[in-house]
Every structure is written in structure tokens, then in C-alpha cells.
Specification:
The chain is of the alpha/beta class. It has two domains: 105 residues, no CATH class; 129 residues, Rossmann fold, CATH 3.40.50. It has eleven helices and eleven strands.
């Protein structure tokens, strides 16, 4: 039997198939899985086994890192077998560095993130819905939508449907009811997730934003309102955390959709 090439990354499923086909000895496959669970770059330890443990490659958070550091971490993950990966909270300078290093990097300006590589194709019945109250909430909503898309979910967007004009939301009731998970993004008093939660039978992930006047306290008012929702299907992530909401929504979607 052949030993796996130490210089070539192999997807875990590909490795297991090679064992089944008799191309690699089980003992050699075990060594391959044990080797390099992370790459120590000095300033970061790129987690190569994140996909094995959690089903998704490590997400790179851009804020606070230099463009060179983000490129280094991204390169280590790709060389370690990552296919499509996500870099969040990316400014234009960092996006330019990623584009120069990785020709298949796509910068989603409004979402402030880079998708490096080609996202997986959604399953036929995949459906995540991202709803936002107002145009000022769009950056957070787009971060959620782009995150879910990069992880392999099909996303419907319903934007600018806040409670001050409830008829706008109700005109999309059919789309809401077809979703497998819904992200609702709102600032001000944060009432929209409760309204959406009262219309559907799927998980609603509420995202408070820092949009609002003085008494909104940078999103704390919306956060507390959402945490006190009377709709039992509503859960809440942190202020402006579109990424977290999109990740959870996609996980729910992908777990519930026949592949």
C-alpha cells in the first residue's frame, strides 16, 4: 500500500475512501490525521482540524490583525486542505492584500468580508431567510447573508421591513414560512424578531444592531428587548454580530436539509 504524500493535503473523507479502497493502510491514515492539527505561525495557530471537529473550516476574524497576518493564516488553512474559507471584518486594505495573494478571493464590500475559494452549492431544499428592519441595518444583515451563503445555504433577503410599516413584512409571509432558519436584524427598539417569531415555526436568530438614537445605548436597548421576546422561537446573538447569526442559521439549515 502507498503512504500518503506528506506534502499534499488530503480531505478527511477522501482519506477514508482511500483506506476503504485499500490504497492507504489504516495505520498510515491515522498518522496523517494526527499530524499537524494546527500550524504555529508565531502570531497565530491555524486550526487545521476545525473542519473535522465542527464541519466548517476555521473562520478568520480580520479586526485587530494586519493584512500580512490575515494572508498568512489564510494561506496556512488553504495549504492544510481548506476549500472555501471566510475572512470577516475586512477593510479595503486587507481585502486588497487577500485579492493579491488569492486570485479566487471575493470581497463583499457591504458585508465587510472576503470569501476565499468557491462556496459549496446549496442543497435543493436549502433556505435561510435574512430579514432586516431598515437600510441602516444592511451591513449587519449582509454579513449574516454572505456568511450563510459561503457555508452552503441558499439565502432569501427581505430588507427594510421594520415594524413602523408592518404591511411590508406581511407581504413576504410566504417566503418567511418556507425558510428553515431566519435571521432578523434590527436596531432602535428591536421589536422585529418578536413579530417574525410569531409568524413562523422555525428558529429565529435575532441580531441587535447599534443603530439608533441616544437611548438605544449602542444597541443595548435592542439587545435587551430581543432577550425579553415573548416569541418562544427567538434566540439572540451579540450586538452587530451578523456573522454569528449567519453561521448558526446555516448550521440549522444544513442539518435539516436532506443532502
Amino acid at each position: 500500500m502507498n503512504e500518503p504524500d506528506a506534502g499534499k493535503s488530503m480531505d478527511t473523507l477522501e482519506l477514508l475512501r482511500a483506506v476503504r479502497a485499500g490504497e492507504i493502510a489504516p495505520e498510515d491514515a491515522l498518522v496523517t490525521l494526527k499530524m499537524q492539527p494546527f500550524v504555529d505561525l508565531g502570531y497565530a495557530k491555524a486550526d487545521l482540524h476545525r473542519r473535522i471537529r465542527q464541519g466548517t473550516t476555521e473562520i478568520v476574524y480580520g479586526t485587530g490583525k494586519t493584512p500580512a497576518q490575515v494572508v498568512g493564516i489564510t494561506r496556512a488553512l488553504r495549504e492544510g486542505g481548506a476549500g472555501c474559507l471566510l475572512v470577516t471584518r475586512v477593510d479595503p486594505t486587507m481585502a486588497a492584500a487577500l485579492a493579491a495573494a488569492f486570485p479566487d478571493a471575493t470581497y463583499r464590500t457591504e458585508a465587510r468580508l472576503c470569501v476565499v475559494g468557491r462556496p459549496p452549492s446549496p442543497a435543493p431544499l436549502s433556505r435561510v431567510c435574512v430579514v432586516c428592519a431598515g437600510t441602516s441595518d444592511l451591513p449587519v444583515a449582509e454579513e449574516a447573508a454572505a456568511t450563510a451563503e459561503s457555508l452552503g445555504s441558499r439565502v432569501d433577503r427581505i430588507y427594510d421591513v421594520g415594524v413602523s410599516g408592518l404591511q411590508r413584512l406581511l407581504s413576504f409571509a410566504d417566503t418567511l414560512m418556507r425558510a428553515r432558519a431566519i435571521v432578523v436584524v434590527a436596531g432602535m427598539e428591536g421589536a422585529l424578531p418578536s413579530v417574525v417569531g410569531g409568524l413562523v415555526d422555525v428558529p429565529v436568530i435575532a441580531v441587535p444592531t447599534s443603530v439608533g438614537y441616544g437611548a438605544s445605548f449602542g444597541g443595548v436597548t435592542a439587545l435587551l428587548s430581543m432577550m425579553n421576546s415573548c416569541s418562544s422561537d427567538v434566540s439572540v446573538v451579540n450586538i452587530d454580530n451578523g456573522f454569528g447569526a449567519g453561521y448558526i442559521a446555516s448550521m440549522i439549515d444544513r442539518r435539516s436539509v436532506p443532502q
